[in-house]
C-alpha cells in the first residue's frame, strides 16, 4: 500500500511516498515543495497545490497522512500553516484520497517511543527504520516520512515504543 506523508507549511511542504507491505516499509520518493517569501500568500498556496496534484496523481496513494496543526505561540504562523493544510486536504480530495491527521507528539511517540523526542531523534529513527543512507533534508522531508511511517504503523495495529 502507498501512503503519502505531508508536513505542511507555506514556506516549505515536506512530502514523502512510503510503500508499506506488511511490516516492510520503503521510502519510494520524498522531497520538499518550497515557495518564496516574496510571493503573495495566495500565490504560495497555489504553488503548493499545483505541485502536489501531479505527485498525488503519479504515486496514487491509498492514504494521505498529514501533520495536525499543533499549539503555536505565533498566531500568524498558525494561520498560514492552517491554510497550507487546507490546500493539502483539497489536493487529496481532488484525487479522492482519504486524509488522516496526526499530532506532532503522536508522531514522536510512534517513531521514537517518546512523545517529547526532539527533531534530531525523529530524523535518526526515520533514517534507521527506512534504512536510508543519510538523514533526509530539509527537516520537513524527514518529518513527512515520519508522518507516513506513523500511519503505516497505526494501520498495522501498533505503535513503536
Automatic annotation (TrEMBL):
Question: What's any GO biological process attached to this entry?
Answer: DNA recombination
What are its GO cellular component terms?
A: cytoplasm; Holliday junction resolvase complex
Record's catalysed reaction(s): Endonucleolytic cleavage at a junction such as a reciprocal single-stranded crossover between two homologous DNA duplexes (Holliday junction)
Q: Record keywords: Ion transport included?
A: no
**Cofactor binding summary note:** Binds 2 Mg(2+) ion per subunit.
Q: What class of enzyme is it?
A: hydrolase
List, alphabetically, the InterPro entries matched: RNaseH-like_sf, RNaseH_sf, X-over_junc_endoDNase_RuvC
Q: Which Pfam families match?
A: RuvC
Q: Which residues of this protein are catalytic? A: 7, 67, 140
Q: Which GO terms describe its molecular function?
A: crossover junction DNA endonuclease activity; DNA binding; magnesium ion binding
User: Which residues of the sequence carry a binding annotation for Mg(2+) 1?
Assistant: 7, 140
EC numbers = 3.1.21.10
Report the locations given in the UniProt record.
Cytoplasm
User: Does the keyword field hold Hydrolase?
Assistant: yes
As cofactor, the record names:
Mg(2+)
Q: What keyword terms does UniProt attach to this protein?
A: Cytoplasm, DNA damage, DNA recombination, DNA repair, DNA-binding, Endonuclease, Hydrolase, Magnesium, Metal-binding, Nuclease
Note the HAMAP family from the entry: RuvC (MF_00034)
What NCBIfam families does the record tag this protein with?
PRK00039.2-1, ruvC
* PANTHER family from the UniProt entry: CROSSOVER JUNCTION ENDODEOXYRIBONUCLEASE RUVC
- What's its job? The RuvA-RuvB-RuvC complex processes Holliday junction (HJ) DNA during genetic recombination and DNA repair. Endonuclease that resolves HJ intermediates. Cleaves cruciform DNA by making single-stranded nicks across the HJ at symmetrical positions within the homologous arms, yielding a 5'-phosphate and a 3'-hydroxyl group; requires a central core of homology in the junction. The consensus cleavage sequence is 5'-(A/T)TT(C/G)-3'. Cleavage occurs on the 3'-side of the TT dinucleotide at the point of strand exchange.
Q: Which family does it belong to?
A: Belongs to the RuvC family.
Q: What is this protein called?
A: Crossover junction endodeoxyribonuclease RuvC
Per the UniProt record, the source organism is: Candidatus Gottesmanbacteria bacterium RIFCSPLOWO2_01_FULL_43_11b
Q: Which taxonomic lineage does the organism of this UniProt entry have?
A: Bacteria, Candidatus Gottesmaniibacteriota
Gene that this polypeptide is encoded by: ruvC
